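Support case: user asked for a sample of complex input and structure output to validate their parser. Sending the pair below.
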Amino acid sequence: MTEKGGNVLEVRNIQTDIGQFHILDGVSVEVPAGSITVLLGRNGAGKTTTLKSIIGLTPPHHGAVVLRGREIQGEPAYRIAARGIGYVPEHRAIFRDLSVEENLRIAERQPGDLNRRAEFIYGLFPDLKRLTKLPGGNLSGGQQQMLAVARALVAENELLLIDEPSEGLAPVIIEQMIEAIRQLSAHTTVLLVEQNFIMASQLADRYTIIETGRSVKSGLMADLVKDEATIQRYLGAA
Amino acid sequence: MTSIWKNNRGLLIIVAVTVVVLAGVLQSMEPKVWMSIMLSGATLAALYFLVASGLSLIFGLMDVLNFAHGVLFVLGAYVGLSTFMNPRLLFNTLPFFFVLIAGVSLAQHFGRNFWHRLHTPRGRQIATVVLLLVGAGIILLAMRDFPIRALNAFSITAVGGAVTTANAQEPMATMLQRVTLMLLAGLPIGLLLAPKEVKDELPLRPVWQTLLIAAIAAAIGYALLLVRDPGETFLLAMSPDMRFLLAIILGTLAGALAGVAIETALIRPFYGNPVTQLVLTLGLSIAGIDLIEAVWGEEANPPMPPPSLFAGGCRSESFASWFSEHCQSIDVFGRAFPTYRLFIIIIGIAVFIAVGLLLRRTRIGMIIRAGVQDSEMVQALGINVRRVFTFVFALGSALAAMGGVIAAPYLGVFPAMGGIFQLQAFIAVVIGGMGSYVGAAVGTIILGMARAFGDHFVAAGIDLPFIDTIIKGSPAIARASTVLIMAIVLLVKPAGIFGKKEGAGRERPLPNPRGRGRPPPGRGNWWKCMESTATLSAKSMTRQRLGQWWPYLLVLAFLVLFPAIAALTIGDATAVEPGASLVEQLAQRAESGYAKFWQGMIIQMLILGIFAMSYDLLLGYTGILSFGHAMFFGTGGYAMAILIGRNFNWPFGLALIAVVVIALIQSVVFGVLSLRVKGVYLAMVTLAFAEMFFILAEAGDFRAYTGADDGLHGFPVPGYLSATDHRTRFYYLALVFFIAVFLMTKRLVDSPTGRVMIASRDNENRATMIGYNTFWFKLIAFVAAGVFAALAGALFALYNVSVTPSLLSVGRTIDALAMTIIGGVGTLVGPVIGAAIIQLLGYWLERWFGASWTLIYGIIFMLIVIFLPYGIVGTFRARSLRLREGWQRWRNQLRS
């Protein structure tokens, strides 16, 4: 669905504070169209904050976020999202009191979005189809993760930000999730945060490593897999 | 099955007990009796619901506890009353609002390049100040000498009566001038609200739409003015039913508009800092009521005559005959019940269903329900939550105002009605569970029934099975019953019956719905702003470790020497007896004239200072927002007055010990009860507990001891302590108490125990995980604060030689809160400075402005909160005045 070529998203040297804490101190990421790019790094390195800074929930006070050639940093989160970014936050953030269907319907930007995309979404996550009337809070962790990803697919987004899709999931479910993300990446560019290196290496085309609030290295995933030294240095034993 | 029992044990027990009690009570009554009691209860419940539902929705979605909700209720009542009884007032005032809207929307649209052209921040600041001053100036000019009182005096017209006098309103030419000036005043305000950044893709309204809005608003404004005489005649000649409908519509609209205004100006710039929002709505609740009194007068209006649909002098047998004959009462099991009250019940049910459908069936309802859970995620889906916030605030305000209009024919219209309903709505919401719509409904029904059965219990007594005599309750118990119910619910289910969030003390970071710019300092944590103050103070402390004590010693020296200084400078030299020694002369001069007066002022500052310090021990050091602190202050005062009074005649020392013991017991009991919940819940719970004490003090049942609503006056204060005869001696007594409390508090907050209190303020979960049972530390703070407040109350009673129920009122707590906030939260000096300022401010404002001084006070209070977010001490410690920042923040956020 995305045109080929060029970068969908360029994050240029952003710095973000939360309260009195400097979280990001110069992060740059490039996300080529049609790719799956993964942000790697240790706990607390600033991966999640990078995603939140892109979507505008923790706006950067310095640097630029460029979506398809247009600077979007500093805009309110709802406007950034409406420009075509889907966000799957860590811990899923399912609306517990809303039914599964409502959880999807609320993500519509035009009336009828869900009906148009239902086939695609339920094709990716067949489990959700039989749960539509259930409150989101009653779902299992894996189902909630599927719902969170599905929710980001309801509107026509050209970029998905997915934060730790494997977090707290059983290995079988992780396999399903990998498969689903691979399938949806045929339609949408993906920027992924993932601690699980195996999953990241199976999915991603490109990587950026973040270390204490700075992006320190990026390149092709295929190269990283061979580069034991880098893995050892920034990610611990892989 | 067992899990249902386990999870809902408390609830099920409540239900079972209620059913048994109800069954016991009901079986001793005739159906017609209990039916009419239930209907009375339902009437009250419907009115409570209109206030509580909005309150609950607003809190659930935005974490804002709107203390100004009662003001909206009163506003609705008065606008409705005016529409119904005195349309002239509306024809002469509504045009101002319409042309203002026209002016604002014009300037907002065409001035969108205005801010863009001002390149420097300094230029923008100057422009903001100038625009604000110009706008306010033109408004003042437009409204100069506006005869609002005369317009109001007209409201005594009989319903349906013809216009009797034209004197009240000004000539058309004057009014046209005023209205046109108001149109002009809209222009600078509109510029102020114009978008700050121009982005080409910003979806601006098309020009024709702006022009149309402005034209329509201006046309309505001028047209209303031009047709004011025929319009008035027409309205008064209209069927009262239609006019009543109009009153409901206009009252509701007024509430909605006021809600939008409050949300835009006071709530929106402070998302992420709930305490500021809460304090601002508190300030508004003071100023708003004064404003309403300024427009409509302070005196209570008799109930508005109900519309003719409910006014026929007959008693109908059925609904059908009511509709055909318009009877004022209807037959329920052989007992007459006013049809108008039935109408209130119907409105309540209709609103419940309508809003319920809105929440369940519409997209905006879905967004609201989602937002209650996680408004940040809703934003991240591309939805402008802020607009939904404004909508919900307007909706809640409109419902409260509508409640006010329909309550007018039932209860009358008076400025204090809002406070009463707000308190009951708080209690209902706590019972039902904050943020739960159904909970609000259930809570209000419980309260309505409790009040109705309580009143019946008082009036007729109750004939319990197995007991021969008829037991009669006292009115006080009926009034306090709602608080008791709340206490019971809290004990079994701290989050309320339908509450899901435990105690509403949510740990997830509060969203910054603006999602733009640097997050405000309060982001992510309830008490961040106080934490910052504390951090700052810690920094400055270490820096001046050596000279840390000298400012204190300087102030102490001044306070110790003050009577002498005052005696020499402002004492009355003629009061000196001939032949007195130098020391005697000094003492005599200190007991005279202004020297005596100013010692009195400082005594009161010291007493209030103790009270405020004790409050800050809770708010600033432990993060407990209590609205019931007055219960300790007042109980301390009452205990002292009663024990040294005629009933007991205890010596002063013994009475003082008793005051401390009583305060200990009281604070332990209510501490254990209230500390089950957190955050805003605790605020409401303590508020209700304090109200219970207020009711008990006012009740006639204990008149022999408390003097009921008169209070106690002239109790025998021992001669050697009399503040009238020995002012200087009392001064030193108060000073000793003050220093003692100051040192004890300082010792406490600097001790390891105090550190844990601060830790539990900043992050209670973390403190718990480190291994502290934060409950005990909070209880220690609660008890210490309670005892100190009781000491302040006892001194207050001794100094004034009188105690009144007002010592226990919410107003006292709000005073303490105001002193703390103005002075600086999380410091010990701050509250004392705040106390001094408020004492002086109150004295001077009352001298300059007379009765309307509280209005000015409320406004000053709000300005301080906006511009000095850390209070005076906090701001001073931050080294740079934050005035500019506060100003900028307010303006920027207002305009976006």
